[in-house]
Amino acid sequence: MGARVLSLAVAATCVLLPLTACGGASTEPSTGAATGGSRASDATAGSATTAPPASLSARDTVAVVAWFKDSRHHEGLESLDKVLSRYTAGSATSDAGTVLTACNELAHDVRILKTFDPIPDAPAQAAWASALADLEQGAADCAAAIRDNDTAQSAEAESGIKKGDSEYAAVVDRLGTILGVDPTNSPT
């Protein structure tokens, strides 16, 4: 019965995901983690790999796929990815206006993302909750630092946002391993 349930999970995944994700699908667990995308920390994205979720049941895999296919979850991940990239670009050029805009967008996105359904995978949800908390604090510190021209608070903001981005990258990698696709890229 276990192979049948796993086959059903693979079939359900293939129905819900683009056909490119299911080419050559098997009932064996995926061994690759999602990499690439446009996460603000490319070094983190390239180096952080997650072991295949061996303990994830077929039912849990289907639940994660269903969670992801809810368009607001997918769009939320894409939006967070974009705003983190804008924050990094503004920081790299020391453009206070761009950084402030990105921090305000980040705070806005995090407020919305916190209302979403939890990820039905405990390790991904734990990293997600930590990422959102750190990004929320970093965004608040960022806006205050720019408003008050406070370099110490600016450094705290940058540290919080980098930590949140690293935790977010772990979520994306874990979801990518479960889903077999990079969850921050639009399906083709």
From TrEMBL:
Instruction: List, as start-end ranges, the regions of compositional bias called Low complexity.
Output: 29-53
The protein's name is Lipoprotein
> For the region Disordered, what residue ranges are annotated?
27-53
Q: Which UniProt keywords apply?
A: Signal
Give the signal peptide, or none.
1-23
